[in-house]
Specification:
Layout (H helix, E strand, L loop, with lengths): L1 H16 L8 E8 L15 H12 L3 E8 L1 H10 L4 E5 L12 E3 L4 E10 L16 E5 L8 H5 L4 E5 L2 H9 L5 E5 L2 H8 L7 E3 L5 E10 L3 H16 L2 H10 L1
Parallel strand pairs: 1-2, 1-3, 6-7, 6-8
Antiparallel strand pairs: 3-10, 4-10, 5-8, 5-9, 5-10
Length: 251
């Protein structure tokens, strides 16, 4: 009996010797804009649709650990250029220096967003091109640039009233002290809600000023992670998880 027990213990020990170590977890450093990009992510990347999406990715892919770093846009680009960061949170190839864009991989689009002319429901007008704003008074943020509209704002073809914050901008529009403001299809309604303003009082122009897809930018050196996140995006677009997130944040 003792001999059989010794044999059994020996076999057990032998089995343990052949059990390999638990699979290692790979850290993935993702950079985020320090001022946030709501509703996709907040300041310091604490919450938002994209944060919840990454949490679900980690849940389904436990061998990856997401390390979030909030930086200025200049530092985000620098970390991606020198390889200190592996992933740029949400980006588009058109916003990357064309001389280095080939160094990165971009996932399928997760969201499509855009900037529009936002008007009060009681003072709607048609917008299709910058000239449609001539003679109108636009609310703007002091110090911000507005692309193709800057020359018209400077020449006074488009009138303006500048304020220091978005909250003040929303109040100008709410009280109809301006004809319109420039706003993002996702961010503006979300920010309005957070300040206690009902977005249903406003309308977005039918024609966008500028539209673009939001993708995940990945270092080419991390092909395996890219393949996983790409497959994950396709999965959540079909299994309803992404739609659930959008309902939660954008309803």
């Amino acid at each position: 009996m003792k001999l059989l027990l010794k044999v059994a213990l020996s076999l057990l020990c032998g089995i343990r010797l052949f059990v390999g170590p638990a699979s290692a977890t790979e850290d993935i450093v993702i950079v985020f804009g320090e001022h946030g990009y709501p509703p996709f992510y907040s300041e310091r990347a604490q919450k938002g649709m994209f944060i919840d999406l990454l949490a679900e990715f980690e849940k389904r892919n436990p061998n990856y650990k997401i390390i979030k770093k909030s930086l200025s846009r200049k530092m985000m680009d620098r970390w991606m250029n020198n390889g200190k960061a592996h992933v740029f949170s949400l980006n588009n190839p058109m916003f990357v220096n064309p001389n280095i864009v080939d160094r990165f991989l971009f996932t399928a689009p997760i969201w499509n967003t855009g900037d529009y002319v936002v008007m009060h429901k009681e003072r709607q007008f048609e917008y299709t091109q910058p000239k449609d704003l001539f003679g109108k008074k636009m609310g703007i943020i002091l110090g911000n640039g507005y692309g193709v509209f800057d020359e018209h704002l400077e020449s006074k073809s488009i009138l303006s009233q500048a304020v220091n914050s978005e909250n003040q901008l929303f109040m100008l529009l709410l009280k109809q002290r301006v004809d319109a403001i420039f706003g993002n299809r996702h961010a503006t309604p979300y920010k309005m809600k957070r300040t206690g303003i009902d977005p249903s009082q406003f309308v977005f122009s039918k024609v966008a000023i500028f539209e673009f897809d939001l993708m995940i930018q990945v270092q080419k050196s991390h092909q395996a992670f890219y393949n996983k996140i790409q497959a994950f995006i396709q999965a959540v677009q079909t299994d309803g998880f992404l739609a659930q997130l959008e309902h939660q944040y954008l309803k």
